[in-house]
Fold this protein.
Amino acid sequence: MNLEVRAVSELSPDERAAFFDRDAGVSEVRSDVEEIVDRVRTEGDVAVREFCREFDGVEVGNLDITDSAERAYDEIDGDVRDAIETAAANVREFHERQMPEDWRASFGSEADGDGPEAGSRELGRRFRPLDRVGVYAPGGTAAYPSSVIMGVVPATVADVDHVALATPPAEELNPVTLAAAHVAGADRIYSVGGAQAISALAYGTESVTAVQKIVGPGNKWVTAAKATVRGDVDIDFLAGPSEVLVIADETADPGLVAADLIAQAEHDPAASVVAVTDDESVASKVYAEVSARIDDRERDEVIRKALENDASGILHARSMSEAVLFAEEYAAEHLSIQTDDDEALLDRITNAGSVFLGPSTPVAAGDYASGTNHVLPTSGGAKRYGGLSVDTFLRSTTVQRLDRVGLESLSETITTLAEAEGLEAHAESVRTRFDADSE
């Protein structure tokens, strides 16, 4: 295991770049992905089925497998069904709190009477769901029914009319993933993965209905495909391999820190897992705990590769301020704060996809069932945007009504600025409303 303890202050420029310039790997496959996207766009189901054979080793009959979801729900183990129901209910409850309300307000002078106030500007904002969205749920080395819940439930809360789910085909599709799609409320389910799934959702095929927006995590082929179709459809964001940063002090339990690092490492060999602490003894103990626990894990080879990643490490900071500065630059997808005063530390954090406070809040809670969304920005994206939410599936429209006095009070400002921009007709569109008064 190549996870030695290093000092933050002694990291070389190349070592710092490995931590801070994490890459989704899109450029490596972009040209191949563009060819896949173009062929699916022009050839439809024929190309999709060919790529399913080539990349997944599966002969796909019906791409639309919606009917199998309810059967899977009835057939899975009762304990698993209950867990899906609980997780989906918690995610739904949290996202329902995010729903914005339409509003209007009057600005300007007050007057009696109904309707817009005399001399006022009645301005507002309203929110409407997208009509059709596509959710991608990964397959491959592991099945992710949790990603189904995280993508589909917020879309249904937003009241999107048509929510489609795409997930990679297999000789025997994971029934838990299908059951999760049923519980979450997906309208259509397609057995197609990778770049071909993204293209099918973006442009439509004989079997797949085109959507307005595509969301959900995936490997670099999926991410590159989302980058390719962006502009023809909207996307959430370009996500890279999963990542966690744990900030710990002398009160942290090294075993719990190690458990969170290992949990994230089992996602992907390219995952980035980091612990930073201002206590050198804690750093050494975390290293020892990680070393001792790997062999007990079923995905130990994946974990080892992730721990050997240049973007993974156990770091010793000279102070908690230095640890915070590192965390702010790192901008983690998942940030765990295991310190004596985690709330005070949280106040100093701006850049993070999702924050987990205290020793009893493992990242896995947010991955599955606490209610927050686990589709989050990676590769430093948290500096610029947040994770999946109800807002992702809504569009907003501004509304305004001016009464005559309100327009008159703004007329000089509008006409002056319009003429300064050389847009005389804009100015005239205001003046013409008062021409009758001057005759």
